[in-house]
What does this fold into?
Amino acid sequence: MTPNLLRQAAMLLNDMLHFDKPADARMSEFFRNNRDLGNKERAFIAESVYGVIRRFRFLSTLTANDDNDPDDARKLILAWLLRVQGRSLRDLDDMLTEQQKEWAIAIKAKSTENFPIAVQADVRDWLWDKLVLQYGEEQALTICRSMFDQATLDLRVNTIKGTPEEVIAKMIAENINNENIIAAMPYSPIGIRMPNRVGISQHVLFTEGKIEVQDEGSQILSYLVAPKRGQMVADLCAGAGGKTLALGALMRNTGRLYAFDVSEKRLHNLGKRLKRSGLSNLNAQLINNENDLKLKRLNAKFDRVLVDAPCSGLGTLRRNPDLKWRQTEQDVIELNEKQTNILARAAKLVKAGGRVVYATCSLLKEENEVIAEAFLDAHPDFVLLPANEVLAQQQINLDTGQYLNLLPHLHGTDGFFAAVFEKKLPETKPIEKSLKKAV
It folds into this structure.
């Protein structure tokens, strides 16, 4: 680590602290404009900047005083190195100016015992209050702290092109990740977890479409949809198509699979992934909104509809820590209306006896159980299928009750919620036979 490297990391962090653009987009732009940086330099910048974003409220409070800007990017990085990473003053001495050494001594000495609990949880007050109300203070703090750690690299094996056993054997043969591979995920039968994040995008297994990067929780959703061969299936909010491709593999490339989204860019990215996947049963369609005429023509046609609804993303803070600073309470309120409308639209697409799966990567009841229960109240022609029973039918031993509720500290996944609804079959009236007396 050098003074110049600290300066560059601080430049990037300073841009990110505006929280007006996704952190990963800011970082990609920075590295495109600084191509002379080596791999180790890039790794330090990325790790330190994301480290500060994960612990931003705690570090801001730690570095604040009357004389200095509490959000000075260099001070925040120093605080992360000293108080989160556990680096010593001696380690950093050669790279610091005299002023920075004074900062470092003050940061190292400051007590954190009286910090408010929301500061220790490293979330905004509005989010902390909601989590405490929902989970209780102890579990809310555990959940928040579980988001401090970087997520593992989860891979989904594309069973159209291979098996988990084949993929793992190839990884071991090539000594990927220094043989530190967990052969099987706890729940997903088609998943591989890499404890250490390694570059996978140029590997032949990825370029040939045998693996995709996908969190285990996201993989589980496809098993709740449980599409069968030959069925007609829709992913109503397909995005870049990770879940869509997982559904296609479960369908064994049969039937008809539709991917709908309002973003042309996201569907373009799906197109690139589709070429690698080997699937030929997928039809991607751009729509304007949930009331698009393209959807109206398909009413009551689908056996399965997945609604991976737009949400706050607060279950993905291990991967996207900037979301806890970018999202507001008002954003959640506005998202609730979208979630309600999209789920209601999905109900019209499914045929009698068919299934709608509503999912979010949120931790909040307002986006999860509240939406599901309001849907059931408004749609008496649907019933809730217990998620634990649906997964048991797929030989997946995961029981979080009638809804799927995944949490990082309990399941090692992102935070996920899902509810499974089935449309009732029409009631059949018994045929009355009238018997006439023979005359």
